[in-house]
Design brief:
- With 221 residues, this protein is an alpha+beta fold.
- The chain has four helices and twelve strands, in the order αβββββββαβαβββαβ.
- The strands form two sheets. It has a ten-stranded mixed β-sheet with strand order 3-6-5-4-12-8-9-10-11-7. A two-stranded antiparallel ribbon has the order 1-2.
- Strand 5 (83-87) and strand 6 form a beta hairpin.
- The termini are far apart.
- Residues 1-26 form the signal peptide.
């Protein structure tokens, strides 16, 4: 083989290798530890297991790429697509599947977490009692526990120091996640609201966008 021909072939091989390297997929980002949805006891109450294998995997807690621009620590609720995002540093967010009730679908805007409660007491609002008279027996309030509609945790959203009556809360009705609900605000599975509760402080910023999806491309990392 002549010198020029050999050099040409080597150049071609190197060029192909470089092109292949340039088209190779980027390495995956750091994954969250596997989300645990098993049965557990929390503060004296049983949190029942969620059959995660029966759920759409997109609705399970996971870290995703995120590029909508909110600062780290912001909670973004995308009611249209049934996701809640906790924005992190480095272009990622922790994404949780949610269920949106009538109250959740009717409220949007910005707020801050004004209170955090474990196994909170629930008092049905007047409009719910009018719509569902059977809940009137709880007009004086229902103590926290597995049968309480607010689930294991609740984050209370305030605007200008006033309670909006809008909640991010838990539910034992795992099958409702990813769907609409006849009542309530924004529900997460009990295991997920416990995780979110432990990650966010009081006065964390919350953005609720009920009528349009977030304009970004999300992929699991």
């Amino acid at each position: 083989m002549t010198g020029p021909s050999r050099r040409a072939r080597l150049l071609a091989v190197v060029t192909v290798a470089l092109l292949a390297a340039g088209s190779a997929p980027a390495a995956e980002g750091k994954r969250l530890p596997p989300a645990s949805y098993g049965r557990t006891v929390d503060k004296g109450f049983v949190v029942e297991a969620v059959p995660a294998a029966r759920m759409d995997p997109r609705l399970l807690r996971q870290r995703v790429a995120y590029g909508a621009g909110e600062p780290p620590g912001t909670i973004v609720v995308d009611s249209t697509n049934r996701f809640l995002y906790l924005v992190e540093k480095g272009g990622t967010a922790i994404r949780y599947g949610i269920s949106v009730g009538e109250a959740g679908a009717s409220w949007s805007g910005e707020a801050a977490i004004g209170a955090k409660r474990s196994w909170p007491r629930w008092t049905p609002p007047d409009e719910m009692i009018q719509r569902s008279p059977e809940v009137a027996r709880h007009a004086g309030g229902l103590a926290g526990g597995p049968s309480n509609p607010l689930g294991a945790r609740a984050l209370y959203l305030h605007q200008d120091g006033r309670d909006t009556l809008f909640r991010l809360h838990g539910t034992g009705e795992w099958w409702s996640i990813g769907h609409g609900a006849t009542s309530g605000c924004i529900r997460l599975m009990n295991q997920d609201i416990i995780d979110l509760f432990d990650r966010v402080p009081l006065r964390a910023r919350v953005i609720v966008r009920p009528h349009r999806p977030i304009d970004l491309i999300v992929k699991t990392r």
